[in-house]
Here is the input.
Amino acid sequence: MPPFDLDAWVARSGALDLDAIPWGDVPKYDVPPEAVRTLTYMQDIESHTIIYLRSLLATRAVDDPEVSTFLACWLHEETFHGIALSRFLEAAGHPVPPRPTPRGQEPVLKRLESWATSIVSKAWPDFCAVHMTWGAINELTTLTGYLRLKAVARHPVLDELLETIMRDESRHFFFYYRQAEIRLQRPAVARVARLLVDRFWGPVGSGVQPQSELRFMAGYLFGDAEGVAAVRKVDETIRRLPGFATVQLLEAWLDRYVKGGRNGHSRD
Here is the structure.
């Protein structure tokens, strides 16, 4: 991949232009209930970015000037994605309900995960390699999810909004992927990063939203032939990273939790 021009990206980085979206046209078109449920999930995850960053601030990521600069802009853009999705849902007559648990009150397991991440970072000088790899996987999954939502929801204003969000997400993915590609060149680093991804990776939102909501969204977006093809493309892209040629990611998760005897559209 060509180099990522961080200075150029920072210069044009900024909040999504909310005034450019024709919010008054949102009620003119139906929003499928499945899309409302999926958008509610996505909005919550986008708004949770500040909690992800809180965990990263306790790692070596902040010591790398390129990574820390990127993360500052990344948080700003992702926060406005959450605001925009919330505004769309409100305009469609489905305002985002209050969270059952405030964001600052993470479950014990999530706090332990953050603590363990900090410990691994302090013990392993090449921690940023796994952080960049993880980010590339999640950004590409998110980007693909938005693309699939456009295809299945078929709402003109949502299409316009998602196109704008996807432009940001594609740049985020490019930064993470290029950084991962560089940092995984050393075989020993790639082996450790692969081990951690194999052991701990889960789709975006795992542990933040109930597993039933994650399965529902996956079934809605990726349950048909076009969705499976999109999932395979995600996995194939990540397999091009050094040390990840045989990794099993999104398709394996989909087979296990959505197709493997479980109904992705169930609330149970």
In short: Residues 261-268 have pLDDT under 50 and may be disordered. DSSP finds eleven helices and no strands in the chain.
